[in-house]
Design brief:
Elements lengths: L1 H4 L4 H12 L3 E10 L2 E11 L3 H11 L9 E3 L1 H8 L4 H4 L2 E8 L6 H20 L1
Antiparallel strand pairs: 1-2, 2-4, 3-4
Amino acid sequence: MQSFLAKKNIWSNISRYMDDVGVQFLFIMFAFQQDGVFHRQLSLCGKNMDEDVLSNIAAYLNRPGQSSLGLQDVSADLLHFHDKGSSRQQHGISIKTYSQTNIRPSRKQIGPMIEQYFSTAATTIAT
């Protein structure tokens, strides 16, 4: 994730991509090996919204049970080094980054969990 966030124009590129595909949320998953140990990380991006919304999604993904992702917030550590010139705020991007301590769930399990969150949130909002 560090090398991804260090890319030139990362915030404008994320913003443009979200505009191009017409989404308000973008979830970026990372998988890598470091010193022979497999790791997963997840970035939750939102367009023109408060970071609390992203924290609520992470809390949903962390709810107790077998499918809990064990997300640990590493936003402050990563963004401190990669948020050059407040460009992220200029493009309206909110982001929360997490290490996934329960590496068993993959994108094939996490995608439906995220869809379930939004269907639950939509029902809650509608009532």
